[in-house]
Recover the amino acids of this structure.
């Protein structure tokens, strides 16, 4: 149909803008490609192909360390037009002639999640995975990801508007907790001297305890607070029947809770805890109070209580109290 043809031309203009940025950065350098056998939406909004990603451009790099630079053509495709594309950098091992399959699959998984869920990512966002990024390396410490502006590609302009190159960076669980305690951009800037190119290296260990990193995170969190507005806990409950407030959380959630709570509520910002039941909204207040709104349980906390709980709680079963607030940690 004429409308569809016109729409396709506009999207080709968007892809040409991406090509232009890559041409400016890489010139006539060798470029490898993976191409989907069938476009996801070749004729209209109804999905047809298996893969959301149409093409992945791959460039072999030697600087700052040998790596593969992958750029997806997916979310600026016809009938997507989300204004950004994912990029990824992974180590290039001696003798490798192509990027590893898990890296190609990761770009497709991200694009597929966005297209099918409608949930977009932006600079400063993060994601946690329930299963290994590479099924062949189940013991990898990399279990989450952060999103930053690709430091070399940045942004492009097209007739469709701006296209942002959003680089995915694989991170460990405690690096994720550090980002939740402070913010993604602060943590990524802090660890970047120890992770050239912000590569996603599934064989590396955590940098959260590297000298200078932990101190920078603590200071940034103390100074600026946390940018994390809510946490999802698989084990979460509350009891107000005794007049006070008792929260119940799983031991595995304690590091996140203890890091984010004092960086949110004492800074005047709410912290929303989501789980299987009613959401719990922690708010700043002069004393510990609670209010059932019908949609959530609102709990006010004095600064001293927030800090006391965060300082005293441990990731092991037990009962921790501060004023009229009790937190039960369960296995």
């Amino acid at each position: 149909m004429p409308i569809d043809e016109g729409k396709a031309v506009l999207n080709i203009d968007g892809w040409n803008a991406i090509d232009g940025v890559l041409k400016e950065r890489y010139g006539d350098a060798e470029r490898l490609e993976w191409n989907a056998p069938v476009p996801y939406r070749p004729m209209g909004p109804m999905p047809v192909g298996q893969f959301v990603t149409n093409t992945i451009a791959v460039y072999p790099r030697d600087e700052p360390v040998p790596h593969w630079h992958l750029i997806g053509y997916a979310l600026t495709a016809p009938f997507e037009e989300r204004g950004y594309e994912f990029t990824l950098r992974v180590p290039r091992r001696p003798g490798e002639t192509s990027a590893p399959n898990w890296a190609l699959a990761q770009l497709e998984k991200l694009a597929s999640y966005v297209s099918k869920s409608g949930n977009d990512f932006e600079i400063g966002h993060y994601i946690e995975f329930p299963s290994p990024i590479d099924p062949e390396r189940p013991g990898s410490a990399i279990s989450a990801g952060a999103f930053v502006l690709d430091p070399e590609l940045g942004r492009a302009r097209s007739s469709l508007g701006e296209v942002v190159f959003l680089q995915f960076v694989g991170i460990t669980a405690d690096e994720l907790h550090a980002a939740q305690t402070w913010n993604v951009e602060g943590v990524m800037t802090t660890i970047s001297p120890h992770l050239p190119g912000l590569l996603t290296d599934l064989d590396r260990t955590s940098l959260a305890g590297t000298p200078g990193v932990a101190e920078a995170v603590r200071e940034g969190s103390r100074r600026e607070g946390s940018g994390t507005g809510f946490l999802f806990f698989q084990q979460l409950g509350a009891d107000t029947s005794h007049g006070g407030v008792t929260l119940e959380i799983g031991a595995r959630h304690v590091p996140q809770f203890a890091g984010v709570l004092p960086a949110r509520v004492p800074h005047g910002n709410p912290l929303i805890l989501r789980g299987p039941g009613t959401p719990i909204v922690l708010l700043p207040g002069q004393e510990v109070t609670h209010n059932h709104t019908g949609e959530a349980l609102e709990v006010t906390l004095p600064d001293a209580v927030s800090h006391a709980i965060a300082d005293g709680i441990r990731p092991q079963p037990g009962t921790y109290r501060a004023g009229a607030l009790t937190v039960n940690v369960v296995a």
About this structure: The CA atoms of residues 208 and 214 lie 6 Å apart. The radius of gyration is 23 Å. Confidence is low (pLDDT under 50) at residues 1-10.
